[in-house]
Amino acid sequence: MLETPALEIVFALVAFQLAAFLYLYRRHRNEEHAASTTSTSTVTTSDRTAPSENEEPPVVECIDCGAENDPDYRYCWRCVSDLAGEPGPGRQHRSPSGRLF
């Protein structure tokens, strides 16, 4: 059997590991809470305002298929063409209704 000092060392190590785990868990949880409150508090009212009824949101029209895309998109959501470049080889310009230009 194990002697008393050996058991005391094992229990001390287990207690130390539990204390370290509890400390790290609380620290991680507090960091997540601080990050979530910081990210929500930095949002300004101008970020939350919607466009007025008369103002249309900005869009970028695809030169290949004519689909309307968000200005942040690099590629068209419909035909996956590069929105910054020229139409691909062999492609014709089309209007949103599908008619050729």
Summarize the structure.
The chain has 101 residues and is mainly alpha-helical. The protein has helices at 4-41, 45-48, and strands at residues 60-61, 68-69.
Describe what this molecule looks like in 3D:
- The protein has helices spanning 4-41, 45-48; strands spanning 60-61, 68-69.
- Helix content is 42%, strand content 4%.
- The radius of gyration is 30 Å and the shape is rod-shaped.
- A hairpin with a 6-residue loop joins strand 1 and strand 2 (68-69).
- The chain has a two-stranded antiparallel sheet with strand order 1-2.
- It has 101 residues and is mainly alpha-helical.
Secondary-structure map with pairings?
Layout: H1 4-41, H2 45-48, E1 60-61, E2 68-69
Antiparallel strand pairs: 1-2
How would you characterize the largest beta sheet? 2 strands, antiparallel
Which stretches are low in confidence, meaning pLDDT under 50 for 5 or more residues running? none
Beta-strand segment tally: 2
User: Residue-averaged pLDDT, rounded?
Assistant: 75
How big a fraction of the residues is strand? under 5%
Helix content: 40-55%
> Within the largest sheet, what's the order of strands?
1-2
Describe the global form.
rod-shaped
Task: Write the element-wise H/E pattern from the N-terminal end onward.
Answer: HHEE
How many DSSP helices?
2
